[in-house]
Amino acid sequence: ATxxxxxxxxxxxxxxxxxxxxxxxxxxxxxxxxxxxGGNSRLWNRVRETDGLSYGxxxxxxxxxxxxxxxxxxxxxFAPANRAKVEAAxxxxxxxxxxxxxxxxxxxxxxxxxxxxxxxSRAQDANLAFALAANLDLGRxxxxxxxxxxxxxxxxxxxxxxxxxxxxDPSRFAGGVAGDFK
Length: 182
Known about the structure:
By secondary structure, the chain is α+β, with helices and mostly antiparallel strands.
């Protein structure tokens, strides 16, 4: 309970036994982009745009560079009165993605969007400096980013859908809500 707060928050978290060096890394990055990280993602389109229930909604991955211990998470910020509707909409979209998978159009659009974002990110001085420093620490070069871009471009729909189903299991979510639910 968070008395007197105007907004409420929902969060789901799930440990993912992968690092950014694992073969499934590109496919899960794309699956997450299509589900909740991209500007045209299913969670955003449903919960924010179509249903108008959330001020912000999405999913993300926090990748470990060193070991198979990463984190997938989804969250939403909403008016406390919309709690049940937000939980239902997010659950429905995730269930639909797991059951039906993504479409060829979603994947094509997702490739364009994610690869454009990655290129733009590397063109910004602060991001480039951070990437160079991180790569020095990890013993990598920017060639790794280029390899990932090639892998993302080559992804098949089957690979992306399989990665989502393999790693995002709602029965294993740790989650909660915070808000003034009177």
